[in-house]
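Let's do one together. I've listed all components of the complex below, 332 residues spread over two lines.
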Amino acid sequence: MKKLNRTLVISAAIVVSSAVACYAASAARQAVLDHFKAAAEASGQPFSGFSAERGKAFFLASHGSGDTPSCSTCHTTDPTATGHTRVGKAIQPMAVSANPDRFTDLAKVEKWFRRNCHTVLGRDCTAAEKGDFITFMASR
Amino acid sequence: MKMIAGLGLAAALAASAAIGAGPGRAADTTATPPAADSAATPPAAAAPATPAPPPVTGEQAFNTECSACHMAYPPQMLPARSWAAITGDLANHFGEDASLDPATTETIAAYLAANAADATPRGARILQGVAPDETPLRITDMPWWRRIHSELPDAVFQRPDIKTRSNCLACHRSGGSGESGEGGERGETEVD
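Okay, and this is what the predicted structure of the assembly comes out as:
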């Protein structure tokens, strides 16, 4: 009986801490999205909210020639799949369902958008594009 | 008594998970946060102030930042001037933007310079065949590398599971540093 109590308590602890972690991650991701929403609204460009559909199209599109014409070149066309860099290193999935920590750290998000948008598009992504992208990944 | 201990454990786990997943966490442990883009307002997350992580060493920064896309190549495999050329133009890093904030870049550059081939005792072997006015940007262009891998045809490096000569870990799974020859002898690679 004592052993069962201990098992129950530990199981409950795991369930509770997982639930708290999930909640905390989605709150952190929402904060990141709110940051880009504010930036998009301040940008002077017309903005009526983020769209997962637009994010999907942006993710899959070919934005140029060269070694990495598309986000999907390295991340693959399936956000739940493991991608690969040009040198063969694995990239963990972008989809939040496969990787709940994605897009919860603004500094990390901005670093990778800066680099990868420059590489793939040759320019900074707009706040609207970033928000659409995250919205798409959070929906998968 | 055990029940109380278990509940205490549950509370501690929940609290640490909440803090760990919060927006204040700097997942990439850079010493200073990178500059936000020009349209940025301060991060919207009003995270409780978590203590700043201790400053990372050049080695830690290098291992963290420079293993995101490839293995953290051993610094002694190139001369200092080659590393300087690479860290001095990270925005154009073999066709990709690998830029970092200036402080982190400087920290990494200093580490690489201090541990480059011309700064280490056995570096003379690595530098054989490299003229002083040459600045190889790829380890795979170094004469010692070419000599060691000379029997491997191009077709091997074009295999989809290998992709490129720069993918050391495809064959050298343990990522041997090469200092003692580990992972560098035929028969010690883990690919057929």
